[in-house]
Amino acid sequence: MKPTLRPAEDLGEVFQAHQAELVRLAAFILGDRGAGEDVVQDVFVRMHQREDPLDGDLLPYLRTAVVNSCRSAMRRRLLIRRHAEKHSPCPPLTVEEAAMLSEDRRQVLAALAALPPRRREVLVLRFYLELSEAETAAMLGISPGTVKSTTARGLAALARALKETS
Amino acid sequence: MTSQDEITRTADRLRDAFGAAADVMTADTSLVRDSDADVITLDISPVRIRGPKIGHAWKWLLPLTAAASVVVIVLAEVFIGHSGGNTLATGSLPQIYSGSGKLHLVNVPAPDPAVLTSPGERAADSRVVKVVGNAPRCDAAIEGSGFVYAPQHVITNAHVVAGVTQGQTVTTADGVTRRARVVFYDPRADIAVLDVPGLNLAPLRFSTQAKPGGDAVVAGYPLDHAFTAVPARIGQVLGVTGLDIYQSDQVDRQVYQVRGAVEPGDSGGPLLSSEGTVDGVVFSAAGGVSDTAFVLTASEVQADANAGANATVPVSTQGCMPGR
Q1: Distance, in angstroms, between B288 CA and closest chain A CA?
Q2: Which residue of A has its CA nearest to B292?
Q3: Which pLDDT tens digit goes with each residue over B40-52?
């Protein structure tokens, strides 16, 4: 039996359960912590507005909704990112959070944030959510082959960027 | 050339960094809970800002972020390539919240398109105008909507004329453009009144009889299109707290939450009833919540409307909105 979500009723619970992961997901994809929080908030507001109950496993649905919202937020992000970069040495994190990470890890996340959006999306889904190539392909609506090649290019670009900074 | 070893090592470092970052990233509990919102971002985009040309406009857009360094300012989407390559942006977005606790948006049933065929509403359409002006200091042209509500006087949003110093015009549905002057400007309520000599259209009347659930029409000039009317439905009356259009002072407003497809350019246009009366002035879409808009109620704008109805002396449109 698949879980069913009735709007408003279970939303608070679902939110509590998945909020942290979804915010991280959006922050990593957008390379911007604040923008990530906005995206997740918007997703929950939209869910609340739904008239029809949602059927099925909720986590994949929520993740997909967040990934899609991140894409529409990308255009805003062009403007927001510069602002965020000035403040945090590592865009997906707040200044306080970044201070708790080692320099090496900060460099990795900063290099990730500097990649083109599509590569970043794929790397986040593959190595943060640990989705398979097939799952990543399904979520992004692209072919598994594209996931594979984008992952390889993304990692290579990341390796090059890290070589330059270290 | 990057070796396979290096690729594998990079993947491991990435996993490790994600894991460590996830551990230190604290969940922000100020996000929506219990299905109510603390804050709703207003998508002010019902106004379009048009840079003079694309290259120039980009130069103008990017430095915006420098100005946004203190407060978190959410920027609206940037539309590119519309209407002959102009860049259209929609500035920084104010937010609204409930003065007491959560802002609860209600589910509103879909609008009934039949409202568009009601004779009263159809008759009102010709009194809805497009408002355009240039704000050279902001390097932008601003467009919105408005409507005739007193002889030769058009009401619109203050944010549709903010900072405009040149070429303020009003265009009617038949395509005739007239010079206009702002004679009343209230950035707190977000209302402005234009004196338009020669505009001899019968004024629309305000009505305070609108009820939740009622049919309505959003009428205006969205996205540089010709006159457009779309069906809408009133959800509820809300008392909301937000900031004035310069984001400097706190303002309480009474608004309708409305379901309907409000788009950039609709700002300042009327929310029409099926009888053709004006239930309120459309002033914002709800950011991130599809098909949801906020409309200043007729009672909310009544005092400003009265104050501007006979005014003929031009007043300052002050500065551009923040981030413009």
Answers
A1: 5
A2: A49
A3: 666 554 454 444 3
Q: A15, B287: Cβ pair inside 8 Å?
A: no
Nearest to B14 among A49, A100, A112 (CB): A112
Domains and CATH numbers, chain B: 39-96 (no CATH), 113-117+208-302 (2.40.10.10), 119-202 (2.40.10.10)
Q: Which residues of A touch B37 (CB under 8 A)?
A: 41, 45
Contacts of B23 (CB under 8 A, 6+ apart): none
Three-state DSSP at B306 gives helix
Tell me if B219 sits within 8 A of B229, measured CB to CB: yes
Say what the pTM is.
0.54
Domain A4-165 has CATH 3.40.50.1980: no
In chain A, what are the domain boundaries?
4-165
- ipTM (interface predicted TM): 0.86
What CA–CA distances, in Å, run from A53 to A7, A9, B234? 6, 10, 23
Q: Which residues contact B141 (CB under 8 A, 6 or more apart)?
A: B49, B50, B52, B132, B133, B134, B135, B167
Q: Name which of A28, A127, A136, A160 to mutate to probe chain B: the one with the most chain B Cβ atoms within 10 A of its Cβ.
A: A127
Q: Which residues of B touch A79 (CB under 8 A)?
A: 61-62, 64-65, 75, 78
